[in-house]
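Training component of the fellowship. As part of building independent skills, the fellow (R.M.) carried out the full modelling exercise for a liganded target. The chosen ligand was zinc ion. The inputs are recorded below so that the supervisory panel can assess the work.
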Amino acid sequence: MKQDDIVLLLKASSIKVTKQRVGILQLLSEADSPLTAEDIYLTLSGGEKGTANLSTVYRILDAFTQKDILIKTNLNLEGKATYELNHREHRHHIVCTVCNEIIPIKGCPLGDYEIKIRKSTGYEIVGHNLEIRGVCPKCQKAKRE
Ligand SMILES: [Zn+2]
Ligand SMILES: [Zn+2]
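Fellow's submitted model of the complex:
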């Protein structure tokens, strides 16, 4: 995501534009998989000392989640929350139970199922979480050797 787009997104969500907030969104838009607050904090504070602290990062992530800029999930196997940009496209992930790698999966098989549930329960369905666990090819190979 370009810096200009991030600034526009923050303004559209009535969030004050700061270097740190822009940096966090930039990081998440470039990440291939969801990140924990610690991941973000470590990356941001990597170079310059005192540019971020963990509780500030948490506060910013919470604010972004409330504004639907980010989605908070509980994918990390240590029970830590992970954050990713709220893509328009609905996605699921598969998690490797050995190395914790998280890979997005395209498409969702649950659309018809949601319609069935709506009919049988009368609920208006607003969403779902589906976490798939497995062992990635790298870890399968490591186990065999
Ligand atoms: Zn693995
Ligand atoms: Zn789905």
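The panel noted the following from the submitted structure. The first helix runs from residue 3 to 12. DSSP finds six helices and six strands in the chain.
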